[in-house]
Write a structure and sequence with these properties.
With about 150 residues, the protein is of the alpha/beta class. The protein is built from eight helices and four strands, in the order βαβαβαααβααα. It has a single domain, classed as 3-Layer(aba) Sandwich (Rossmann fold). This is Bifunctional phosphoribosylaminoimidazolecarboxamide formyltransferase/inosine monophosphate cyclohydrolase.
Length: about 150
C-alpha cells in the first residue's frame, strides 16, 4: 500500500449531476491536469472554455448503444487499475497504449430520483448506471494510485 501523495496528471470526469463540475474542473486545469471526459460532461466542460479530451480518444471507440457503452473498455479500466510500480502492469500499458488515469470524478445516474419521480419502466432501466460503479470500484481497488 502506498502512503505518499502522488501527483495527478490526468483526471477522468464523468458526471450525471453537473452542478459545480465546471468550477472543479477549472481548478484541475489550473494545475495542468489533463481533463478526459464522457459525452455530456465533455460538452459541458468544453462549452465552459476548458480543454477536454473525449474518453473515446482513450478507447478508440465512440459511445455506442445509446450511451450504454462509453467507459467499459480496457483503455479506461486499465488506466485506473494499473499499479504504477508493477513492471508487468507498466509493460501491458505500453503494449496496449493504455494511459494512466490518476483521478476519477464520477457521480451516478439518478436512478432513485427517476424512480421516485414516477419514471416509466424504460426510463428507470436507462438510469441504472453500469460504467460509473465499475470505474468507482476500479479506482477504489487501486486507491494507492488513483484519487
Amino acid at each position: 500500500m502506498v502512503n505518499s501523495l502522488r501527483p495527478v496528471s490526468r483526471a477522468l470526469i464523468s458526471v450525471s449531476d453537473k452542478d459545480g463540475i465546471v468550477t472543479f474542473a477549472t481548478a484541475l486545469a489550473g494545475k495542468n491536469i489533463e481533463l478526459v471526459s464522457t459525452g455530456g460532461t465533455a460538452e459541458t466542460l468544453s462549452k465552459a472554455g476548458l480543454t477536454v479530451r473525449d474518453v473515446s480518444e482513450l478507447t478508440g471507440y465512440p459511445d455506442m448503444m445509446d450511451g450504454r457503452v462509453k467507459t467499459l473498455h480496457p483503455g479506461v479500466h486499465g488506466g485506473l487499475l494499473a499499479i504504477r510500480e508493477n513492471e508487468t502492469h507498466q509493460a501491458a500499458m505500453a503494449e496496449h497504449n493504455i494511459q494512466p488515469i490518476d483521478m476519477l470524478v464520477v457521480n451516478l445516474y439518478p436512478f432513485e430520483k427517476t424512480l421516485a419521480a414516477g419514471g416509466d419502466f424504460d426510463k428507470c432501466i436507462e438510469n441504472i448506471d453500469i460504467g460509473g460503479p465499475a470505474m468507482i470500484r476500479a479506482a477504489a481497488k487501486n486507491h494507492g494510485d488513483v484519487a
